[in-house]
Design brief:
Blueprint lengths: L6 E2 L8 H22 L5 H12 L9 H26 L6 H29 L2 H33 L4 H30 L3 H21 L23 H32 L3 H25 L4 H21 L4 H6 L7 H32 L8 H31 L1 H25 L9 E4 L5 E4 L14 H12 L8 E2 L4 E2 L5 E2 L5
Antiparallel strand pairs: 1-4, 2-3, 5-6
Length: about 525
C-alpha cells in the first residue's frame, strides 16, 4: 500500500486564554530551571580549579584530576533526576500537580542560589572539600526539584491537552531547549567580571524565583488534580528486539559524548588557549543552538522507515570524526606520523559538529526504534510510541550520567585528547553494530494504509485492496508511526493527527499535506 496523508487536528479549547496560559506558565518554568541546570558548564570547572589552588599552593593549572571531580558533579544531577523521577511518578497523586510544580521550582531556586553561598564559604575557608561536598548536596537538591517539577508539569499538560499532547509538549520542549542554550552564555558572561560563581548563581536563582511567582499568577485558576493515567507496556521489554537495543545504546553513547564535554572542555580551552569564560559560554551557546536547529530540521524529515536508520548512522559518523578532531586525537601522530594543528577554531567547529551529530542520533532513534518494533510485530498497541518514548528518555538520562563520569575519568587518567579519542572509537563501534543490525536483522515491512475518499469528504485508510480493514477495529501501524513522529519532532511545531484528510491551518480549515 501507499503511505496515507494525515490531518492536523487542533483542540477548540486551545484558543481559550487559560489554556494558553497553562502552556506559557509551564514553558517559562521549564526555561528557567533548564537555564539554572546548564549555567555551570562554562564556569564550574574553572571555579573548582581556582578553589583547589587556594587550598593547595602546589596545585598547577590544567591538572586533570579536577575533571573527574567536576564530572562527578554533573553526573550527580542526571542520576538524581533519573532516580527521583521514578519515585515521584509512583506517588504523584499525593499533592495536586500545581503544588508539586511550584515546590520543585522553589527547591531549584534555593539550590541554585545556594551554590553562590558555598563558593563564598569555600573561598573564605580555602577548603576544596567543603566546596565539593556542598556542590554534591546542592546538585542533588536541584535534581530533586527538577524531578518533582518535570513529572508534575508534563502530567499536567497531558491532562489539559489530551488530544494535542504532541503539539503542546513540543512547544514546551522548545522553551526548555532555549533554557539550555541561554544558561551557559549567561553563566560565562556573569562569571568573568567577578571571577566567582556566586554572582551568576544568585542572579539565576532570583530569576527562577521570579518565574515561580509568574507561574503562580498564570496558573491561579488551574485545578491541577491528578486524573487516571492509562497503563502502558514497559519500554524495557522492547530491548529484546536486537535493532531496538542497538539503537538505544547508540543513543546512550551519543548523549554520553555530549555529556563528556560538560566537565572537560571549559577547563581544556581555558588552560590551553587562555580563553575567557564569556567566550567559553558563547561556545556552548553556539553548539546548543546548532543542536536545537538540527533537531528541528531532522524532525521534519525523519519518519519511522529506513530513512531514520540512514540518519542515525550518518549522525554517528559525524560524531566519530568530530571527536577525532576535537583533541585533536593523538592517534594521528601515533599511527600516521602527522600532528594536526591544535587550533581553537578547529575545536569550536568540532564541538558544533558534535551538536549536529547528537541531534541526528537522538531525533532519529525513536523513529528507528518504532520502525524496528513494527517490523518485529508490535503493531497493535496504541501506547507503543509512549513506551518507546519513555525508553528513549531513560536512555538519554543514562547517557547524561555516564558521559561526565566516564569522560572525566578518562580525561583525568589519560588527558582530554585521549578521552575524546575513546568516544570516537565508541561511535565507530556503534556504526559497525548498526550496519550489522541492518544487514542481518530483517523483519517484515510494517503495513501502511491507503487513503480512500468517503461520501462526506473525509478519508479512511485501508490495507492494500482489503477495503474492509479500516481503522474502526483499532489503531494501525501507520497511526502508531505518526504518533511517534510527533514525539521526536523536537524543537519544531508538532502535529497530532486525525482521519479527516488534511492539515489544519489552525482555524479549523484543512490544507492538503504532502504525501506520507
Amino acid at each position: 500500500g501507499t503511505k496515507p496523508r494525515y490531518a492536523l487536528h487542533t483542540r477548540s479549547h486551545c484558543t481559550i486564554a487559560p489554556s494558553y496560559l497553562v502552556v506559557i506558565a509551564v514553558g517559562v518554568l521549564n526555561f528557567s530551571q533548564n537555564a539554572a541546570f546548564s549555567l555551570f558548564a562554562p564556569m564550574y570547572p574553572i571555579q573548582a580549579q581556582n578553589i583547589q589552588k587556594l587550598a593547595d599552593p602546589k596545585y598547577q593549572d590544567g591538572h586533570p584530576g579536577i575533571t573527574l571531580e567536576a564530572g562527578a558533579i554533573f553526573s550527580t544531577f542526571a542520576a538524581g533526576v533519573f532516580i527521583a523521577s521514578r519515585l515521584f511518578g509512583k506517588c504523584i497523586t499525593v499533592l495536586s500537580l500545581k503544588k508539586q510544580m511550584f515546590i520543585g521550582i522553589f527547591i531549584i531556586s534555593i539550590a541554585t542560589a545556594g551554590f553562590g553561598g558555598v563558593a563564598k564559604l569555600a573561598v573564605a575557608e580555602k577548603s576544596w572539600l567543603a566546596f565539593w561536598l556542598g556542590s554534591i548536596g546542592l546538585r542533588l537538591l536541584q535534581a530533586l526539584g527538577a524531578a518533582v517539577c518535570q513529572t508534575a508539569s508534563f502530567t499536567l499538560l497531558t491532562q489539559e491537552f489530551p488530544n494535542d499532547v504532541e503539539a503542546v509538549l513540543s512547544t514546551v520542549e522548545v522553551l526548555s531547549g532555549l533554557g539550555f542554550v541561554a544558561g551557559p552564555l549567561v553563566g560565562g558572561v556573569l562569571y568573568w567580571p567577578h571571577q566567582t560563581i556566586a554572582f551568576p548563581c544568585f542572579v539565576v536563582g532570583a530569576v527562577v524565583f521570579v518565574a515561580l511567582l509568574l507561574g503562580l499568577v498564570l496558573l491561579r485558576n488551574v485545578n491541577g488534580e491528578v486524573s487516571e493515567v492509562p497503563l502502558r507496556p514497559s519500554g524495557l521489554t522492547f530491548l529484546q528486539v536486537i535493532p531496538i537495543a542497538i539503537a538505544f545504546f547508540c543513543m546512550v553513547f551519543a548523549t554520553a559524548g555530549l555529556g563528556f564535554l560538560e566537565p572537560t572542555i571549559a577547563l581544556h580551552v581555558h588552560t590551553n588557549f587562555q580563553t575567557k569564560t564569556p567566550w567559553i559560554g558563547l561556545m556552548f551557546f553556539a553548539s546548543c543552538s546548532i543542536y536545537t536547529l538540527t533537531a528541528s530540521l531532522v524532525g521534519r524529515v525523519v519518519s519511522a522507515s529506513w530513512v531514520s536508520r540512514v540518519v542515525l548512522i550518518l549522525g554517528l559518523t559525524i560524531l566519530c570524526i568530530s571527536f577525532l578532531a576535537l583533541g585533536p586525537s593523538p592517534i594521528f601522530h601515533k599511527w600516521f606520523h602527522w600532528t594536526p594543528p591544535k587550533k581553537l577554531y578547529i575545536l569550536i567547529i568540532a564541538q558544533c559538529c558534535i551538536g549536529v551529530g547528537v541531534a541526528m542520533v537522538v531525533v532519529s532513534t525513536l523513529s528507528d526504534m518504532l520502525y524496528s518494533a513494527l517490523k518485529a510485530g508490535y503493531d497493535g498497541n496504541p501506547m507503543l510510541p509512549c513506551s518507546l518514548h519513555g525508553l528513549l528518555r531513560s536512555g538519554f538520562s543514562l547517557g547524561e550520567v555516564l558521559g561526565p563520569l566516564i569522560g572525566g575519568t578518562f580525561a583525568w587518567k589519560f588527558g582530554f585528547d585521549w578521552g575524546a579519542t575513546v568516544f570516537s572509537c565508541i561511535m565507530a563501534g556503534c556504526i559497525i553494530l548498526m550496519l550489522l543490525a541492518t544487514i542481518f536483522c530483517r523483519g517484515k515491512e510494517p503495513e501502511y494504509y491507503d487513503e480512500l475518499e468517503t461520501e462526506d469528504g473525509s478519508s479512511e485508510y485501508t490495507s492494500g485492496e482489503e477495503s474492509d480493514d479500516s481503522l474502526d477495529g483499532g489503531i494501525g501501524s501507520s497511526h502508531l508511526l505518526v504518533q511517534a513522529y510527533g514525539s521526536v519532532n523536537a524543537g519544531s511545531p508538532q502535529q497530532s493527527y486525525s482521519s479527516t484528510g488534511g492539515r489544519s491551518n489552525g482555524n479549523g480549515s484543512y490544507l492538503n499535506p504532502p504525501a506520507g
